[in-house]
Amino acid sequence: MRERDIASAQNLFLEKNVDEEWITFLDGGEHKKIVSPNCKKGELWTTNTEIMNVGGFMIGFVPVAIPVMVWSEVGLDQIVKVIPISLDTEFSMWPESILVSIKNFLLVEIFNERPMLIYNLGQCFGHISSGDLSRAELARDEFISNNGNSLDENYLQWKKVEFKLAEYLTLPVNLSL
To answer: How is residue 55 annotated by DSSP?
Structure first.
C-alpha cells in the first residue's frame, strides 16, 4: 500500500463505525474497550494502525492503515475475512484481482484474502456495487480453481510487496489459535 492509496482511501471516508473508549485497570494499565464494528460483505474499510489482540491489548503498531474489503460475515470467534484494496490499477489481472469503481477505480486483490480480528477494522468508507461484488465472487471462485498463473516478473514483484504489507492483519488471528 502506497501513501497515495492511503490518502485516497482517507478522502473516501463516509462514517466511523467503531467507538474508541479506554479502560484503566487498577494497576494503571490501559487498553481499548473492544467494540465490534458492524460490517457487511462488500464494505470498504481501513484497518487500525494499532494492532489489538483478542483481549483488547495492543500487540503492535503499523505506520499506516490499509484499505480492505470485507469478504465474509463475522464469525463467533470475531474473525472476518478481508481482501486488501489498492490504487495500483495497472496490476489488474483476472482472476487474481479486479477493478471496482467507487469515486475512482480501486484494485481488489483477490489473491491477498486473509482473516483478521474484527476489532482491527478502523473506519468504513463505502461499499462496492452488487455487480462488482458478483464479479469479485466469480473471480475468487476462478482464482481458487486455477490458483493464479502469472509469469510477469513485475507483477510477481508487486504481488510479493502487497503480501508483505498485509501480513500483519493475520497476526492477532494466529496468536489467538
So the answer is: T
| Spatial CB neighbours of 138, under 8 Å, sequence gap ≥ 6 | 95
42: left (phi over 0), alpha (psi -120 to 50) or beta: left
Considering the domain boundaries, does residue 177 fall inside one? no
**Cell triple for residue 90?**
495497472
Q: What is the pLDDT of residues 92-117, one digit of tens each?
A: 989 999 999 887 889 999 999 999 99
- The pTM score is 0.77
Q: Which of 15, 113, 8 is nearest to 64 (CA)?
A: 8
What length does the chain have? 177
CATH of the domain at 167: 2.30.30.110
